[in-house]
Amino acid sequence: MPAESSPYERAFAEFLGVDHAFAFWKGRVALYAILRALDVGQDDEVILPGYTCVMNVNPIVYVGARPIYVDIETDTYNIRASLIEPRLTPRTRAIICQHTYGYPADVEGVLAVGRRHNIPVIEDCCLSLGSRYKGQPLGTFGRAAYFSFQWNKPYTTGLGGMAVTSDAGLAERIADLCRQERQPPSPRETILLAAQLAAYRTFIYPRTTALAQNAFRWLTRKGLVVGSSDTAEFRPQMADDFFKGIGPVQERSGPRQLGRLDRAIAHRRRMAHRYDELLAAHGWRPTSLPEGAEPALVRYPVRVADKQKALDTAASRFVELGSWFECPLHPIETPLEAYDYEPGMCPVAERACREVVNLPTHPRADEATARRSVAFVASIGPAPPQDTS
Ligand SMILES: *Cc1c(COP(=O)(O)O)cnc(C)c1O
Description:
This protein is of the alpha/beta class and 389 residues long. The longest helix has 21 residues, at 261-281. It starts with 6 loop residues before the first helix and ends in a 9-residue tail after the last helix. The model has no long low-confidence stretch (mean pLDDT 92). Helix 1 packs parallel to helix 8 (248-259), helix 2 (27-37) packs parallel to helix 3 (54-62) and helix 9 (261-281) runs parallel beside helix 12. 46% of the residues are buried. The chain has helices at 7-16, 27-37, 54-62, 107-117, 168-181, 187-204, 210-221, 248-259, 261-281, 307-313, 347-355, 367-380, and strands spanning 20-24, 45-49, 52-53, 66-70, 92-98, 121-124, 132-133, 136-137, 144-148, 161-165, 293-294, 299-303, 329-330, 356-360. The chain is built from twelve helices and 14 strands. It is globular. It binds pyridoxal-5'-phosphate (PLP).
């Protein structure tokens, strides 16, 4: 690790088993740093799954590159490795391998394509901190990886992101960028974030009710939650203060969250196992995972017959139902054409957007949560079967 790295960065690198970690204001900023350090720029192309959030596409556009969308696997919602090669061009400069919900992607398949064409693979671990593949943590397979610590990610520091790599040359380039361009958050942002985190820990975190969730979403929409996504970020134009590091609140909170992570991961695994059992008893087909996958799910995805009805009625049944992703570039308000996504490009992903809701696995969810949530989705019913070949 470079001498100037912080205790939190060193603790994170050690937890994951990588050589270098760099903390940023958000996960998307970490991706931006990685793309810049890999020299991805004007008119280059970056491959990513057509089942992601638009905040993840913005950094690609910010460096002047074009996003190229590839369809996903039916069961893991991750990029389908066999569809990558046909989309490669001489301009392809990176492949983003997102591990959706915490399910490991077909890491070997994606890495093999990268190796054959000498294109670096960047792992998007924003939803998958704690998941493993063949005994090894996600985020240690590609040339680099990035993580998010926003409030509904595997752990939260209010906002936050981390870029990691064990490639010494790449680490040196990220360190240079940080020295030259990384700004500290403003005092106002620091104070707002501290207040938000305190409110979250007091009012949102202890409760699992949909009500508390809805209240937080409402505050977010009203712009009362610092740095939450607002429509301003749909303009693919980088704000002057985009490239930020973390402040004292995140620096203090991060190592504490890391210290609790092993227990949280064990809990998420138990919750997913219960959902597997309960849903199977109600007629859902078991999820088929790549061999050696040990997921720690940040949310448990399930396909339902009538997604709109599920979303409309969940709160009244005290079910904390999530809806990632509502369209190939979440959220539903994203102007897809501005991001070079044409409807029909990724049919499996588009179908998933219409069918998938997700259930809580966080530390406050328990057996009663699992039973209540499954009884609710069972009342809606499973989505019709589909060809998974
Ligand atoms: C949340 C998320 C991001 C972006 O993280 P931020 O910290 O919000 O910038 C990127 N990719 C995926 C898959 C995410 O879920």
